[in-house]
Amino acid sequence: MNIYWDSFKTFFKIGIFTLGGGYAMIPLIEEEVVNKKQWVSKDEMLDLIAIAQSCPGVFAINIATFIGYKLNKTRGAIATTIGTALPSFLIILLIAIFFHQFEDNKIVATMFKGIRPAVVALIAVPTFNLAKRAQLNKWTLWIPIVSALAIWLLGVSPIWIIIAAGIGGYVYGKIKVKS
Amino acid sequence: MIFLSLFCTFFMIGLFGFGGGYGMLSLIQNETVEHWHWLTSSQFTDIVAISQMTPGPIGINSATYCGYTAVVNAGYSTTMGVLGSAVATFALVLPSLLLMILISKMFMKFMHHPAVESVFQGLRPAVVGLLAAATLLLCTADNFSTPTTDWWQFMVSCLLFVAAFIGVMFIKINPIRMILYCALAGLILLY
Questions:
Q1: What is the ipTM of this complex?
Q2: Staple partner for B61: which of A101, A103, B17, B51, CB 3.0–4.6 Å?
Q3: What is the mean pLDDT of each run of 10 residues along chain A (179 residues)?
Q4: Where are the domains of chain A?
């Protein structure tokens, strides 16, 4: 079988069956790409996950691009990227086109009134989980607090916070090496 | 030119969106709701809810939905809306594609360089702040109502917020199931 088509199809399948965002995708990718197709080894996969996590962008797309490039260079990367993005694109497009026909339906509207506060809670939960994983201590705790307040109260764009934090980390690393 | 703004905005989101889907939410929220006013706060929350319940990465879902909605809200046809969602999704994916190819080609060995690691050391705590800001910015009258406009809805909203937080954080209830429970609770308590 054509390898472009094969890799496209594999990642399309991964894109369809992942519910709940990028990290839920990891076991599925491992099953398809490592166990079944053996495109990358288990160790390579761990490296790929680490790099894809630290890079910006959608995690699943980063992984897909990496594996696609490894298989067939740039054209392979394009095939797997489209494969991963296409299912969500099509599903959400259908919802976007038809959703406002139901938006004003009283039952749907009241259901969403109950859903909205829950979604805010769903975003609050990873804030705490991420804080645990970032291993904040008394020297670094001010960073998330100041960043959050700057965005929330002063309307600073998160992009500036990201740039400042990157530069800050780099400078701090330099100073630490010298002393 | 709405297509150009969509492209540039989602390219920036793709380029600076560190910390996975949720980390990206704060950027998407800031750009699409606060800066460009393409979506209202409650539309954004609805997208997050729909993203949770449908397959695929949350970043792609928001880009697709937002691209369509922004173009249609600006008065264009459905066909132009589809084009808008394609532009936004393509723009979001493009930085990942370029960056990953670049890293595969030549920077693989730099990923463990001390300078790169220090940069990430600065980014990690900041992403926590980004997520906290996204949560705070979503605590609006759109999502919770207010005690003066609708006292009952405000109380129910606060209750559902606390219940969902405890349910997902401590009891480890699946988020999709939690959304469905809250939809049902909303239907019973607010209809």
A1: 0.84
A2: B51
A3: 87 80 72 89 81 84 90 92 93 87 84 91 86 85 94 90 92 88
A4: 3-102, 106-178
